[in-house]
Design goal:
The protein is built from nine helices and ten strands. The strands form two sheets. The chain has a six-stranded mixed β-sheet with strand order 6-7-8-3-9-10, sandwiched between helices. A four-stranded antiparallel β-sheet has the order 2-1-4-5, covered by helices on one side. It is globular, with a radius of gyration of 17 Å. Helix 3 packs parallel to helix 6. It has 232 residues and is an alpha/beta fold. The chain has a single domain, classed as 3-Layer(aba) Sandwich (Rossmann fold). GO terms for molecular function: ATP binding. Belongs to the ABC transporter superfamily. This is ATP-binding cassette domain-containing protein.
Amino acid sequence: MTRLLKFEAVNAYYGRAHVLHDVSLHVEAGERVALVGRNGVGKTTVVNTILNLASLRGGTMQFNGRAQQGLRTYTAARAGIAVVPQGRRIIANLTIEENLLLGGAVKRPGPWNLASIYELFPILRERAHTPGTALSGGQQQMLAIGRAMMANPSLLVLDEPSEGLAPVIVDQLAVIFNRLADAGTALLLIEQNLSLITRVARRLYVMAKGSIIEEGALEGLDIEQLHKHIVV
């Protein structure tokens, strides 16, 4: 398998604050990986390190076998990494369709376009010309996912996608994420919802205090032990 994303002994900072400590992880092409841990342990800083919003001052980050430095959201998408950020960040003064077209601005070739996104999320087609922020929370999450997929990424990074959503919507997200993975997109799922993790991921990393403290396959995992790493 092709190793898409690789962190090797990464140390990352915000100013003088040292947040990631010798973090090593990887995601293979087409793989479904979860990164779990309690609030404040550094999970989102992994995303911010990918996007150069946190400063990498030790170790290496590679994507598709190439060392990466200085990526931003646009250049990451052009390289094949799309991020669904925590909080969704729907652009308020754009319609649903305009938000989606913004995601496709990098014009990477692939199967995802307006037609295929509307097939995946019919509600977005029905309300295509209404403001993105007029949607419910679950629908906004669908828009954020659709916007990311418009870039036809090799790797989709999902930062707390179930946050604030009803269980029935989380169930829908699990189906959607598995469908995207089945179509060939690798997933890095940063999450605390055990139900979503166990239904989507095949392998996971556990973080605590900015470090990876455990990793392995989900199959046969002690769920009660995992629960202790997530619940405060």
